[in-house]
Amino acid sequence: MLLMKKLLKKLLTINKMSNQAKSLYIHIPFCEKICDYCDFTKLQYFRNFAVPYLESLKKELDFYQPHSLSTIYVGGGTPTALELDLFQQLLEIIAPFSTGVIEYTFEANPESLSKEKISLMKQFGVNRVSLGVQTTDDKILAAINRSHRFKDVQTAINNLKKGGIENINVDLILGLPYASKRLLIKDLNRILSLGVKHISCYSLTVHPHTVLYRKGYREIDDDILREYYDIVEEILTKNNYIHYEVSNYCLPSFESKHNLTYWRNEHYYGVGLGTSGYLDNVRYKNTKNLNKYLKGQYLDEEEILNDQDRLFYQIMLNLRTIEGLSLKELKEDFSLDLYQQKKDIIDEFIKQKYLYTEGDYLKPTYQGMMILDAIILKLI
């Protein structure tokens, strides 16, 4: 409890500083059911948990009083798992902080995204939806315990567009059970036929405590996974999608503005069970214990960054996107001439076409994105 009070005092001081965060992430941990691969902070949806959770969430938001925000992202879990009256209550809780927001995103599952919830989102200013699709193959969806089928995805996207929300992201997972190159090509072509603005492609990580792990399923070989990524790259770029971040593609001007906050290493509020935030020089994490959260014991740990920590985050996060890393900013912020210090290493990466320079920026190629961890280790 003493640690909790100290952290709250520190964050309250930070929150009053002029360096305001412009992005807000809100976590809704509830799901209709738990998918076999999922490792996120999540809970089976029960109304008697959701009601006090929203009350506690409101108190945490009131504590931070975020204002002048540019982006809000409501993730999970599955925010649309909430019943209609509680879904409206959530939107009402967020409403005081959403004025003037440029991008307001809700995550959703196709089977729980009703026309009524779409209408409410539109009414409250939500202008972007991220759908958890994972695959368009009904057999694989059943194998990983997903409730929806591809026809539900088609219906959800059609209803979103009719409801006035055109900025839609679709999540795909590479390397699921029964996956193959043929099925991946089918997935991509089906998704392209839906006319979505943004596509996120993540490789499956099998965590030890998940159902998939207990069933004996393991991650696919790295060489096969690379072949999958090459297929994604070829098909999506040929269809005018920009590969603007390691796992993300979009049509021109439809980058996720909220997620760019993370990759630019900018400040943001994190509110809700198990979430993270970054204010001034402190990265903090909330508790994953629901009982503690409902009692208002939100914070769990903090990381006070020194210059070396900030440098690490700057390099690691900036190089994830085609915006790249500003060598000029590194000189200004850290008195570091990275190119001169790592000249031989950077020149070799450029020679091998993993990196390139544009103005004062160091940027990754597609090949570089595929070995980004190795590049970062060499640069830091």
Q: Could you explain the architecture of this structure?
A:
This protein has 380 residues and is of the alpha/beta class. 43% of the residues lie in helices and 21% in strands. It is built from 17 helices and 17 strands. The strands form 4 sheets. Strands 9-10-8-7-6-5-4-1-11 form a 9-stranded mixed β-sheet, with helices on both faces. The chain has a 3-stranded antiparallel β-sheet with strand order 12-13-14, covered by helices on one side. A 3-stranded antiparallel β-sheet has the order 15-17-16. The radius of gyration is 21 Å and the shape is globular.
Task: Give a concise summary.
This protein has helices at residues 2-15, 47-64, 84-94, 115-123, 138-143, 150-162, 181-193, 211-214, 222-238, 257-263, 290-294, 307-318, 327-334, 338-341, 343-351, 366-370, 372-379, and strands at 23-28, 30-31, 43-44, 71-76, 103-108, 128-134, 167-174, 198-203, 242-245, 248-250, 269-271, 276-279, 282-286, 299-304, 325-326, 355-358, 361-364. By secondary structure, the protein is of the alpha/beta class. It has two domains: 2-263, Alpha-Beta Horseshoe (pyruvate-formate lyase- activating enzyme); 306-380, Arc Repressor Mutant, subunit A (Orthogonal Bundle).
